[in-house]
């Protein structure tokens, strides 16, 4: 039988029986990338509010920088963070290297430009008259920002989902900061890379199907919810 | 309630262009004042400064003879825009939004919303999606939203531009009724509307007040040549 077809059949079997290793790897991936995205959102959304709604010197340069950083290679970022977090590095005392927390920290840095750039665009696309309207109805600065963020909430949510997908599907940071240690830092992408090089195509395909299914179903669900929203 | 709002030598520059040039204006409570002029004359800029949405480059705004800042102005004034913006959600959400911002009692909000909607013939529209309404109905919601706040000064920037006569009539009636308890300032290039609604009319031309008079005198006997030409529809842009 064709090894790919054979791989797909075994992959489906692994998923359907709930293979413990597959489940562990998937759960860790969801936890690490989900936490990294939420963490990045905590600082990225306020940054995008400032970039979209406030006037300050260097605003255009800052926006350009965040846009450019979206394309930053994950391996390069992984190396940079590895040097920071390694025992002899300036942040070595945190002992994050080769832990899930290390991957989480790295992925949160990786997705920050995505959340910032996409959220800024979403906030800038809100009708500028809304700001005047909120103010003339008595809104403070914070209340005005709140109503603008609410109007842009779907766009901001899509930015967060795009960031999650980026974190969930990246390899460089997870490999370099996590080290692909079984039952500790092994996530979907590092497992796929490892199993492929070891020749276990079926497991690679199973993990790839899960990776794609989660990433795509999340995006599709959000888009469907957005269409049915008022 | 305040008795009047005034501007003193208000000027505004945008990118080196003078939009307003030393404007002095007085709007008294329980009176409707129309600001007329061709497009780009500076009417909207003036309203935004009085509403506290924009700062003058020079000059000041006074409430009852006391100079006030933008923040204070926003506690006295509210404004209806030419292109009304609806918040997401229902008509109720839109009208209640300003009331909540101004800490109205949650028990009073439903009644206040209903009363404001009744003023613009939108009784029973509370649960309708605001953005699904026609442009005329949306403008009426915008007026109800502003009236619900019961501010001292209501400003309307071209409130009936591009609306059908039926919606325009309802809006004019609501503005007229609201003038019984506050100062109303309307910016319009619709002279017939200014004549119907106003106690006083101010003509702005290229950022300057060129004529200000009680309505009947303004139309019957304008002293400025540009105002006479504007009334006759012959003023060159």
Layout of strands and helices, then pairs:
The complex is a heterodimer of chains A (230) and B (237).
Chain A: H1 3-17, H2 20-53, H3 59-69, H4 74-85, H5 100-124, H6 129-136, H7 141-151, H8 153-169, H9 172-178, H10 188-198, H11 201-228
Chain B: E1 4-14, E2 17-28, E3 32-36, H1 43-50, E4 58-63, E5 66-68, H2 70-76, E6 77-80, H3 91-101, H4 109-119, H5 135-147, E7 153-157, H6 165-178, E8 183-188, H7 191-197, E9 200-205, E10 208-214, H8 215-220, H9 225-231
Parallel strand pairs in B: 3-8, 3-9, 6-7, 7-8
Antiparallel strand pairs in B: 1-2, 1-4, 4-5, 9-10
Helix pairs in contact in B: 3-4, 3-5, 4-5, 5-6
Structure description:
The complex is a heterodimer of chains A (230) and B (237). In chain A, 78% of the residues lie in helices and 0% in strands. With 230 residues, chain A is mostly helical. Chain A has a single domain, classed as MetI-like fold (Orthogonal Bundle), CATH 1.10.3720. In chain A, helix 2 (20-53) crosses helix 8, helix 4 (74-85) runs parallel beside helix 9 and helix 8 packs antiparallel against helix 11 (201-228). The N and C termini of chain A lie far apart (51 Å). In chain A, 40% of the residues are buried. In chain B, helix 3 packs across helix 4 and helix 5 (135-147) runs parallel beside helix 6. Chain B has a 6-stranded mixed β-sheet, with helices on both faces. Chain B has one domain (4-231): P-loop containing nucleotide triphosphate hydrolases (Rossmann fold), CATH 3.40.50. Chain B has 237 residues and is α/β, with parallel strands linked by helices.
Descriptors for this entry?
heterodimer; A: 230 residues; mainly alpha; MetI-like fold; 0% strand; B: 237 residues; Rossmann fold; four-stranded antiparallel sheet; 10 strands; 35% helix; 27% strand
Percent of residues in helices of chain B: 25-40%
CATH architecture of chain B: 3-Layer(aba) Sandwich
Task: Kindly report the CATH topology of chain A.
Answer: MetI-like fold
DSSP strand count of chain A: 0
Q: What fraction of residues of chain A sit in β-strands?
A: under 5%
Number of E strands of chain B: 10
What is the CA-CA span between the terminal residues of chain B? Answer: 39 Å
CATH superfamily grouping of chain B: P-loop containing nucleotide triphosphate hydrolases
Secondary-structure content class of chain B: alpha/beta
N-to-C order of helices and strands of chain A: HHHHHHHHHHH
Characterize the largest beta sheet of chain B: strand count, sense, and whether it forms a barrel: 6 strands, mixed
Largest sheet, strands/sense/barrel of chain A? none
Q: State mean pLDDT of chain B (0 to 100 scale).
A: 93
């Amino acid at each position: 039988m064709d090894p790919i077809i054979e791989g797909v059949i075994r992959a489906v079997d692994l998923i359907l029986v709930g293979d413990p290793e597959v489940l562990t790897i998937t759960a860790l991936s969801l936890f690490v990338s989900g936490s990294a995205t939420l963490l990045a959102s905590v600082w990225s959304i306020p940054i995008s509010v400032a970039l979209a709604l406030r006037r300050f010197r260097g605003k255009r340069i800052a926006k350009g920088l965040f846009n450019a950083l979206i394309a930053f290679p994950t391996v390069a970022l992984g190396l940079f963070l590895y040097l920071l977090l390694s025992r002899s590095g300036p942040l070595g005392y945190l002992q994050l290297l080769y832990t899930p927390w290390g991957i989480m920290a790295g992925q949160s840095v990786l997705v920050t430009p995505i959340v910032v750039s996409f959220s800024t665009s979403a906030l800038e696309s809100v009708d500028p008259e809304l700001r005047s309207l909120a103010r003339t109805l008595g809104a403070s600065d914070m209340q005005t920002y709140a109503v603008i963020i609410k109007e842009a909430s779907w766009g901001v949510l899509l930015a967060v989902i795009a960031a999650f997908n980026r974190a969930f599907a990246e390899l460089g940071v997870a490999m370099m900061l996590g080290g692909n240690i079984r039952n500790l830092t092994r996530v979907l992408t590092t497992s796929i890379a490892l199993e492929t090089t070891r020749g276990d195509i079926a497991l690679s395909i199973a993990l790839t199907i899960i990776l794609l299914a989660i990433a795509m179903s999340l995006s599709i669900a959000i888009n469907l919810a957005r269409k049915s929203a008022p | 309630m305040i008795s009047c709002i005034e501007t003193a030598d208000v000027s505004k520059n945008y990118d080196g262009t003078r939009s307003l040039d030393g404007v002095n204006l007085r709007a008294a409570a329980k009176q409707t004042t129309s600001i007329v002029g061709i497009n780009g004359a500076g009417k909207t800029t003036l309203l935004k400064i009085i509403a506290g949405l924009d700062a003058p480059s020079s000059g000041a705004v006074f409430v009852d003879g006391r100079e006030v800042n933008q923040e204070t102005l926003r506690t006295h004034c509210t404004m209806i825009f030419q292109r009304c913006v609806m918040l997401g959600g229902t008509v109720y959400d839109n009208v209640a939004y300003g009331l909540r911002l101004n800490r109205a009692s949650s028990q009073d909000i439903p009644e206040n919303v209903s009363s404001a909607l009744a003023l613009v013939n939108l009784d029973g529209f509370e649960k309708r999606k605001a953005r699904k309404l026609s442009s005329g109905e949306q403008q009426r919601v915008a007026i109800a939203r502003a009236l619900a706040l019961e501010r001292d000064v209501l400003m309307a920037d071209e409130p009936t531009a591009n609306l059908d006569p039926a919606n325009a009539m309802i809006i004019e009636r609501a503005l007229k009724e609201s003038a019984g308890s506050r100062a109303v300032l309307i910016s319009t290039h619709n002279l017939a509307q200014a004549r119907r609604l106003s106690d006083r009319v101010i003509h702005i031309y290229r950022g300057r007040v060129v004529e200000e008079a009680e309505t009947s005198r303004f139309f019957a006997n304008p002293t400025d040549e540009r105002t006479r030409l504007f009334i006759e529809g012959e003023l060159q842009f």
